[in-house]
């Protein structure tokens, strides 16, 4: 079972994303070394739609969110984590 995390940017905070991003990226890179992130990224319209990440477990998604500089520094308006049980198909 995977966990999918969704973030939206808090109202009035989008201008701060560039300033906080280096700390977020450093945290992400360190966390990813543990192998618990499958993929992460923003949607095409990140202001309207935010971003999502797929983790190998809910515990990993919660641990990431709880210490992510974007969350800690108040840039995230809404965060939600949902459990996901996908069908997986091997690449041809």
Features:
globular; Alpha-Beta Plaits; single chain; 37% helix; 30% strand; 4 strands; four-stranded antiparallel beta sheet; alpha+beta; 92 residues
Task: Walk me through the structure.
- It contains 4 helices and 4 strands; from the N terminus they run βαβαβααβ.
- The protein is of the alpha+beta class.
- It has one domain: Alpha-Beta Plaits, CATH 3.30.70.1060.
- The protein has a 4-stranded antiparallel sheet with strand order 2-3-1-4.
- The longest helix is centred in the first third of the chain and has 16 residues, at 17-32.
* Mean model confidence by pLDDT: 96
Strand content: 25-35%
The secondary-structure class comes to alpha+beta
The CATH class label is Alpha Beta
Low-pLDDT parts are: none
Instruction: Report, as a whole number of angstroms, the end-to-end distance.
Output: 23 Å
Shape: globular
Tell me the strand order in the biggest sheet: 2-3-1-4
Number of extended strands? 4
Largest sheet: 4 strands, antiparallel
Percent helix, as a range, is 25-40%
Q: CATH superfamily membership, which one?
A: Dimeric alpha+beta barrel
Order of SSEs, N→C?
A: EHEHEHHE
- What kind of assembly state do the chains in view correspond to? single chain
User: How many discrete structural domains?
Assistant: 1
């Amino acid at each position: 079972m995977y966990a999918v995390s969704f973030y939206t940017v808090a109202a009035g905070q989008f201008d701060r994303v560039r300033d906080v991003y280096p700390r977020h990226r450093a945290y992400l890179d360190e966390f990813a070394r543990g192998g618990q992130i499958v993929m992460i990224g923003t949607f095409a319209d990140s202001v309207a739609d935010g971003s999502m990440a797929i983790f190998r477990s809910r515990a990993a998604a919660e641990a990431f969110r709880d210490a992510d500089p974007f969350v800690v520094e108040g840039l995230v308006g809404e965060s939600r984590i949902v459990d996901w049980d996908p069908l997986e198909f091997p690449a041809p």
